[in-house]
């Protein structure tokens, strides 16, 4: 540098061109949150005007409905059952008083004891016949009560009798035909076993009898199941006897095992309940016989106590069993014929006129 020039200052390093200086990082705004997922519309309310929903039924629906119709109309279910069962048991007991008294006063070692015993057995037959007829009538009347309960309607005992009285003979006839079918199976098997025994001896009879006995039991069970809807069809659809049996078979054959399972379970449940109810009365009858000895009063007291136990058990189980059969029949029509669509029209009927739904049971394909 020449004289007179100021001393040169050292140059500061410059930032490279094109690279701006970085300020503080910008603040980030919170991202908008996601809202709730789009909701699905609530399921439609199932139509349930009475003791069952109008859709294909589950076992729980059927059992709840069988209990529900008893709870909603106890007079026409428990009350009606009590009247019929008590009356039939009282008649049967009165018919047995004379023979039981004669049997109690007869020496077991004498020749008259056998005659008295046979007489007591014969006097039970009228009581059994009366009980069978009463059971048929009761089943038909309870069917009417359940048919109304499906729509949430109740019915009096008098109106129930009015609805059922012109169906009594078809009910008796259909029950008799079903019974005769089972008896015919047994008779055929017995004839074959007797013929085999006569031709080949006892071993041949046993060899033929065991499989035929199993076959007869299975055949009788099958007949009972496939015809179980016939009384309900006679009453609700007002079909003739043979048409009711064939229609029952048509409804059940495509779903036999499900119907059989529910039918068998219901039989087991009702048997256990009736037995549990009757056991205390049976113990009381045995205790009375032990304390009072083999006398006429002791026999009468024991018979009355046993009858009371049977009556209470039947009053509890008979309406439930009848309700299960009718609701199972309704379920089969829903599944096989879309019968729920027909029943829905009854759900909108005038509740002031419950008879407006009776004709809906007549609709069938």
Task: Summarize it.
By secondary structure, the protein is mostly helical.
Q: How would you describe this protein?
A:
By secondary structure, this protein is mainly alpha-helical. The chain has one domain (59-347). Helix content is 71%, strand content 0%. It has 11 helices and no strands. It has helices at residues 59-72, 74-104, 112-149, 157-164, 168-200, 202-226, 230-237, 241-253, 256-292, 296-337, 339-347. α5 (168-200) packs antiparallel against α7 (230-237) and α5 packs across α8 (241-253). The radius of gyration is 38 Å and the shape is globular. Mean pLDDT is 83; it is low at 1-6. Residues 1-10, 22-46 have a biased composition (Pro residues). Keywords: Membrane, Transmembrane, Transmembrane helix. Residues 1-47 are annotated as: Disordered. Residues 70-330 form the DUF7847 domain. It holds the Pfam family DUF7847.
């Amino acid at each position: 540098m020449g004289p007179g020039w100021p001393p040169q200052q050292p140059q500061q390093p410059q930032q490279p061109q094109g690279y701006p200086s970085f300020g503080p990082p910008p603040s980030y705004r919170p991202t908008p949150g996601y809202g709730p997922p789009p909701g699905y519309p609530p399921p439609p309310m199932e139509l349930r005007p009475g003791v069952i929903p109008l859709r294909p039924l589950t076992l729980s629906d059927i059992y709840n409905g069988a209990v529900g119709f008893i709870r909603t109309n106890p007079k026409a279910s428990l009350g009606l059952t009590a009247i019929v069962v008590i009356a039939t048991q009282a008649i049967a007991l009165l018919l047995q008083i004379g023979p039981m008294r004669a049997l109690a006063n007869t020496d077991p070692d004498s020749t008259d004891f056998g005659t008295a015993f046979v007489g007591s057995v014969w006097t039970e037959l009228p009581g059994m016949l009366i009980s069978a007829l009463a059971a048929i009538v009761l089943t038909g009347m309870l069917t009417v009560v359940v048919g109304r309960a499906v729509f949430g309607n109740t019915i009096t005992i008098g109106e129930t009798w009015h609805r059922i009285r012109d169906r009594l003979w078809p009910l008796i006839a259909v029950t008799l035909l079903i019974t005769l079918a089972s008896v015919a199976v047994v008779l055929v098997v017995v004839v074959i076993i007797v013929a085999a025994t006569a031709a080949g001896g006892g071993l041949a009879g046993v060899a033929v009898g065991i499989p035929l006995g199993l076959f007869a039991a299975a055949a009788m069970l099958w007949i009972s199941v496939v015809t179980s809807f016939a009384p309900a069809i006679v009453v609700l659809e007002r079909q003739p006897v043979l048409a009711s049996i064939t229609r029952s078979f048509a409804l059940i054959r495509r779903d036999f095992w499900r119907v059989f399972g529910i039918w068998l379970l219901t039989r087991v449940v009702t048997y256990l309940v009736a037995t549990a109810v009757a056991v205390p009365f049976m113990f009381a009858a045995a205790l009375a016989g032990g304390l009072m000895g083999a006398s006429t009063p002791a026999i009468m007291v024991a018979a009355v106590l046993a009858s009371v136990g049977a009556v209470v058990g039947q009053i509890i189980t008979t309406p439930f069993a009848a309700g299960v059969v009718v609701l199972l029949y309704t379920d089969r029509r829903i599944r096989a014929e879309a019968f729920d669509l027909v029943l829905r029209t009854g759900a909108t009927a005038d509740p002031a006129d419950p008879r407006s739904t009776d004709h809906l049971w007549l609709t069938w394909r």
